């Protein structure tokens, strides 16, 4: 494996264009190679940079929201921070649901950093880790919404929550396809 002379990123030996900065690489004779000849030119890596940014932003938010709950027992809702002390007597099981949700939120934030590091380093387990992250997000959201629905004896699968879960499914499908096309880049 060689490094790009422009950005320094690792580039597979037979690549003709850097998949990270789209710079035309030189062959052994020092001649440039046409961009149209390169598979990397067909599959640019701009979305990869967006995914990396979203992972870090999501990790920071998940950890902060989880810590705020643990420290102050406040829950982030679409209307802002909500103190759950008023629910403790009426819905005792709801408090356990919130605790579970926020502990798993912190764990997911830590896992997002791990996935970010794997994708940024072009590790072979990076794309699979991203799929696992989305599947865990989907499953944990469904479990938590079911638990909250049971605790409050109401349906918590409202439009907002269902759209969030559908968004995770869509991101899983998009990113699975995106990284499958670029699987030769993730060899470390």
Could you explain how this protein is built, in words?
By secondary structure, the chain is mainly alpha-helical. It has helices at residues 39-42, 46-72, 85-90, 92-120, 126-152, 159-181, and strands at 2-3, 10-11, 74-77, 80-83. Strands 1-2 form a two-stranded antiparallel ribbon. Strands 3-4 form a two-stranded antiparallel sheet.
Task: For the record, give the distance between the C-alpha atoms at the N and C termini, rounded to a whole number.
Answer: 10 Å
Helix percentage: 55-70%
The total count of strands amounts to 4
Question: What is the mean pLDDT?
Answer: 82
Low-confidence residue ranges: 30-41
| Tally of separate helices | 6
Query: What's the shape?
Result: elongated
| Structural classification | mainly alpha
Report the radius of gyration as a whole number of Å. 21 Å
Order of helices and strands: EEHHEEHHHH
Biggest sheet architecture: 2 strands, antiparallel
The strands making up the biggest β-sheet line up spatially as 1-2
Q: Estimate the strand proportion.
A: 5-15%
């Amino acid at each position: 494996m060689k490094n790009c002379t422009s950005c320094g990123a690792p580039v597979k030996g037979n690549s003709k264009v850097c998949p990270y900065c789209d710079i035309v690489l030189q062959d052994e004779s020092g001649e440039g190679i046409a961009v149209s000849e390169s598979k990397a030119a067909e599959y640019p890596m701009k979305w990869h940079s967006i995914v990396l940014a979203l992972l870090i932003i999501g990790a920071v938010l998940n950890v902060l929201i989880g810590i705020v709950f643990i420290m102050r027992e406040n829950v982030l809702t679409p209307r802002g921070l909500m103190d759950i002390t008023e629910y403790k007597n009426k819905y005792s099981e709801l408090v356990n649901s919130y605790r579970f949700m926020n502990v798993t939120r912190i764990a997911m934030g830590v896992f997002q950093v791990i996935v970010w590091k794997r994708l940024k380093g072009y590790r072979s387990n990076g794309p699979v880790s991203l799929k696992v992250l989305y599947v865990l997000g989907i499953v944990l959201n469904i479990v938590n919404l079911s638990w909250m629905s049971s605790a409050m004896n109401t349906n918590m699968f409202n439009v907002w929550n269902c759209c969030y879960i559908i968004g995770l499914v869509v991101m899983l499908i998009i990113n699975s396809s995106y990284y499958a096309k670029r699987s030769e880049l993730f060899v470390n």
